[in-house]
Amino acid sequence: MTLREYQAKLVRELERIYPNVPIKKEWWAKIGNGFYSPRLDVAVGPFVYDTLQYWAEYDRLMMPNQLVERLLTIHKQNVHNAGWETCNTSFEELKNKNINGRCLLAIEIENSVSRKHLVGGAINAAALGRIGVVVGWNSEKFYALLKLRKYLNFLGNVGKNTFDTTNLLVLNREQLLQTLEETRIR
What we know:
Layout: H1 3-17, E1 23-28, E2 39-44, H2 55-62, H3 67-82, H4 91-97, E3 103-110, H5 115-128, E4 129-136, H6 139-157, E5 168-172, H7 173-182
Parallel strand pairs: 3-4, 4-5
Antiparallel strand pairs: 1-2, 2-3
Helix pairs in contact: 1-7, 3-7, 5-6
């Protein structure tokens, strides 16, 4: 499956899970004139384009099918399997970290980018989404994303400037797609 086919499959599965919510491939987060405006690979709305916020709507969308809880569980297992650290993020911490996200789920798929670009993708996902998901397309990118997460957490633990990864989930492409395919709506 190509990256474009994978993106399209994610969109179809997310549309099934969230039938009345806008889902966009290549969503451009137009922040405003004079600002860098990133584009997410896949995003689940509703989308914030101005000062309107969807806090209550995002909370409601996270609960019925427990998709976010399943993604968090897989992420925690990935961090544990890497053997460097433990992820103790609770569902409530994850849910409330980026309360004013510009979309519900911000998904970045990392394939053939440099490690510096991985940082940008991770920051964009966590900053724009109530929940940010970075997907390692292959094992090299997947482990690089886990190492990046470890590094950012290390910086915070030793009192350095860093980016908080509380709402950032690291998965590989099979894990995300399988979780979406197995998620049933109620």
